[in-house]
Every structure is written in structure tokens, then in C-alpha cells.
Amino acid sequence: MSSFSKQHVMKIVIIGDAAVGKTSFVHRYVNGQFSQTYLPTMGVDFSVKVLRWSEKETVRLHIWDIAGQERFVSMTRVYYKGALGCVVMFDVTKLSSFLKCHHWKQDLDNKVMLPSGAPIPCILLANKCDLPERVVTADSIAEFSKNNGFFTWMETSVRDNRNVDEAMRRLVQEILSVQSSEDQTLSSLEDSVDLQSRKATKRKNCC
Ligand code: GDP
Ligand code: MG
């Protein structure tokens, strides 16, 4: 890496009900593979993927794949701590997994936020759209996504490798743009604090 390049490090958490395809998604994204064998995640899996983002920037993603079992349905703050982005996933053939997304998003927003207090960028993924027995319509997903603070939603098929890279790219893009506006807000806040304290010092000196 040249001395001019910058590496962004981002923790991303993937949440959603069990068996919606979270582990398959991460596996496909990181290793480019898909497997039909179903091995439920126990606890947390951790994967790393490095993206060459631009000429001078790389992005190192730390992806936390959180177990979807009922007993883990409320995640502790430790899992979310330091996350800069989130994927909430459901299975389009299972209505209950879609309805549960509300709970997942709330749990996330209650436990992690950006320094400004805003929620972290979150994308909603409607997985298994290759299957014919779909029960959740695009209209209801769009409405739910809008009403629950997702910056966007996408249909994915991990099996057919549809929208996997695209979804992650959109998430990274959103994280970077939110980060730069957060930096601006923070630096303008610092400027105004600095200005206030300089004014105060000046007044003190002059008296
Ligand atoms: P997790 O519990 O959310 O991590 O779900 P898994 O990744 O373990 O996947 C559960 C099951 O769904 C596995 O049998 C996968 O092969 C299957 N699966 C995952 N994604 C897709 C998909 O896009 N299409 C289809 N048809 N099956 C999928
Ligand atoms: Mg899993």
C-alpha cells in the first residue's frame, strides 16, 4: 500500500431470523460459494473481506454473522458495539421472518448509534427471491423499509448470486457518505466550541 492510500475499517453486523440465509450470504460474499447444507450458526461468526474501493482507498470489512436462534433474539450491546453498518435479512417465503425485522431493527437502534446519535446505516435484504413460493410482496417491503429507517432495500438470492456484491457495495457507500457528513457536523461543532472559548478568553484578557 502506498503512503497515500487510506484504509477504512468497518464493522458490519448481519441480523435476522434463523435460516433466512445470513451465513450463506456472508459465505457467498467472502468466499464466492453457496452450500445447501444447513448448519445453524452458534454464537457469532466473524469474517474479513478487503475491498479495493478506489485508487487510494481500501475498505476492510469485519463482518459479524449473528446467530438467529430465538434464544439470541435480543442481541447484547457487545455484538453491536462499534458497528458502522447493518444488514437486516428475511426470507421472502416466510412471513414471520419479515414481520420480525421490525424487532431486529429496534433492537439494533436501541443499542448502537453514531456519535451524532443517529441510527447506523441499515439495509433490508429480501432473500431467497429465486424461490417460487414467495409470500411477501415488493410493495409491502418498500413501505416497511421506508417506515422503519432503512436507507434502502434489495431483493437477493444467495443461491443464484443475485445482488450479493451490490448490496454490500451500497452499504459501504452509505457508511462512507454518512461518515463524511458526521465528520463535517463534528468539525463544525468543534469550530463553534473553539470560537466560543476564544471569545471568552479575549473578553477575559481585555478586562
Ligand atoms: P442463517 O440461519 O440465516 O444463517 O441461514 P443459512 O445461511 O444457514 O441458510 C439457511 C438455508 O437456506 C440453507 O439451507 C441455505 O442453503 C438456504 N438458502 C440461503 N440463501 C438462499 C437463497 O437465496 N435461495 C435459496 N433457495 N436457499 C437459500
Ligand atoms: Mg447462520
UniProtKB/TrEMBL annotation:
It is a lipid-anchor. It comes from the Eukaryota. Keywords: GTP-binding, Lipoprotein, Membrane, Nucleotide-binding, Prenylation. One of its GO terms (biological process) is phagosome-lysosome fusion. It is found in: Endomembrane system; Membrane. SUPFAM superfamilies: P-loop containing nucleoside triphosphate hydrolases. One of its GO terms (molecular function) is GTP binding. One of its GO terms (cellular component) is trans-Golgi network. Belongs to the small GTPase superfamily. Rab family. The small GTPases Rab are key regulators in vesicle trafficking. PANTHER family: RAB FAMILY, RAS-RELATED PROTEIN RAB-7L1-LIKE ISOFORM X1. This is Ras-related protein Rab. It comes from Salarias fasciatus (Jewelled blenny).
